[in-house]
Protein: SAM-dependent MTase DRM-type domain-containing protein
Amino acid sequence: RNFDYEEIHKGKRIKEEHTDDFTSFVGPAYLSSRNGNFQSSSSSRYRSGKDQIQAAGELPKIPKPEPCKILFEMVAGPPYFFYGSVANLSHESWTKVSQFLYAVEPEFVNTQFFSALIRKEGYAHNLPTEKRFHIHPKSPLSIEEAIPHSKKWWPSWDTRKQLSCINSETSGISQLCDRLGRILVNSQGLLSVEQQTDILHHCRTLNLVWVGHHKLSPMEPEYLEQILGYPLHYTQDAEWSLADRLQSLKHSFQTDTLGYHLSVLKSMYPGGLRLLSLYCGIGSGVVSIESSPVKQNILKKWWQNTEQTGELVQIEDIQKVSSKKLEHLINRFGGFDLIVCQNPTGNTSKISKLDAEDGDCIAGFDFTSFYEFVRILQRVRNTMGRNG
Structure:
């Protein structure tokens, strides 16, 4: 049975509404609609992370759609693929991704248009770009919306509206908050410019929020889950520490942003779609390839709690997914409509020195894992092409 797209995460439902295109490309886009009527999408030249990520509240003007090139027929239809990264990969890494994904050029989007988080996410895909829409209810668009009770403690000189990052460090944070609190108390709120600058620096880099009079505290995972669009306590597991939860959330997609790009599939697959997911951590479905037992358990609990229809198949080791295994899965499910892969940023510590020396790891890009995705994608597309 099929994956219930409408229940991508509990509490969210699909609602169409007119919207501008919030994305940009590293050059001409190569995207098309399912029926072969090639569409246009916005484009702009690649910009550095500082240019791409604007300060909170200073939203850049959305570029108007421009004509784009035609994608080759061999790439233009299902099974669709979607490769994404929340890490700030280098231009060289994205060039490598494009070379192995049929010359599809990556699309970048700032999550600040969809949530209270300012972060650039990059995607390489062959999905249609027309008729995208937001999923509802929307996640909070500001820190105040996510933590309304903090407003009464928030000083006027702290002008943050959105998070500039997700911090996963926990060591020494409580001691730092105590030190900053003493500075605030001793100054009776009359801080020098240097003191304000120092406190704001820590607030921005460590996700510190105001929880009392002259009192700062790191943002709890529950609020980060809300900002990223996940259900409350989604990452809570007996085997995970606070640092584990924060690390997982740091490397997770912002679901409103992801849902906006996948929304085009709703009308194409009204009965649900067959999904093959690789390295997607705490969010995936149908056939999920994920090495972390805790992340597998989180997905399984979500699958059961949201009463998803269909069967969830979880596979631990991607290298054991042979051509024969893939053909078995294709026959079992009748093929796949979408193949999703997330750059396994959290696994970069496991990359061997040999891989790094050979150039397989470039600034957080795990090429060895990416190659496994390419292998599986090509095998699925070739097999379904023969069967079709």
Observations:
- The two ends are 20 Å apart (CA to CA).
- The first helix runs from residue 49 to 52.
